[in-house]
């Protein structure tokens, strides 16, 4: 049984590394900023050199699995402390507006507030999306099997996946494979608002 557990643990680690591949640099940087950690602070907590972390965030190096593991452990430390009160204790965590990281599209017309839980980032991510008319968000392909869900709250959006385009208005939801380049646009003349949820490979394919 010990060997089997070891193999399962190794498989889980490899799956996590595959999930992060291609998006690793952005993911590490997003988590580090979500915790308001400097490069030096993350280096101290993880035992990974500051220069290496900087290269990872810029996608200039392919880190070893051991390095990914040390970084993930360091970035989860505050969550572990929250949960350390015991399984029977109530758990409520609040994130203020100031603590919520914001991503901005290249054209500056779309803003994604990262409202998803840091603990689930490897398999589930969700965002509060606000957009000006004409705003466009271009995204690279996520790992194979990933699905994105865009639920429109206000205005009108369209999603372009490999030339296939669908539109949705308030109260409607678009679900699409995001393991290929895809674009979300705010169409019409009014600002748009939507909730975006990304379900990663581990939840979709296995």
From TrEMBL:
Keywords: DNA-binding, Transcription, Transcription regulation
One Pfam family hit: Cupin_2
Organism superkingdom: Bacteria
Gene3D superfamilies: Jelly Rolls, lambda repressor-like DNA-binding domains
Ranges of residues in domain HTH cro/C1-type: 28-82
InterPro entries reported in the protein's UniProt record: Cro/C1-type_HTH, Cupin_2, Lambda_DNA-bd_dom_sf, RmlC-like_jellyroll, RmlC_Cupin_sf, TransReg_Diox_bact_type
Coiled-coil regions listed: none
Annotated PANTHER family: HTH-TYPE TRANSCRIPTIONAL REGULATOR (PTHR46797), HTH-TYPE TRANSCRIPTIONAL REGULATOR SUTR (PTHR46797:SF23)
Name of the protein this chain belongs to: HTH-type transcriptional regulator SutR
Gene (name only): sutR_1
């Amino acid at each position: 049984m010990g060997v089997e557990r070891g193999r399962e643990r190794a498989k889980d680690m490899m799956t996590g590394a595959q999930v992060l591949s291609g998006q690793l640099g952005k993911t590490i940087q997003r988590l580090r900023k979500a915790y308001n950690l400097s490069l030096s602070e993350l280096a101290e907590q993880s035992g990974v050199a500051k220069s290496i972390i900087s290269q990872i965030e810029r996608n200039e190096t392919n880190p070893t699995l051991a390095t990914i593991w040390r970084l993930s452990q360091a970035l989860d430390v505050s969550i572990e402390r929250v949960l350390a009160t015991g399984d029977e204790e109530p758990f409520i965590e609040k994130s203020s507006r100031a603590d919520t990281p914001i991503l901005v599209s290249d054209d500056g017309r779309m803003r994604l507030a990262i409202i998803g839980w840091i603990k689930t980032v490897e398999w589930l991510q969700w965002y509060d999306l606000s957009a000006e008319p004409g705003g466009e968000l271009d995204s690279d392909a996520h790992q194979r099997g990933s699905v994105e869900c865009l639920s429109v709250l206000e205005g009108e959006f369209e999603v372009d996946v490999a030339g296939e385009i669908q539109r949705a208005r308030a109260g409607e939801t678009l679900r699409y494979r995001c393991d290929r380049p895809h674009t979300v646009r705010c169409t019409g003349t009014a600002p748009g608002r939507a909730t975006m949820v990304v379900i990663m490979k581990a939840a979709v394919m296995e």
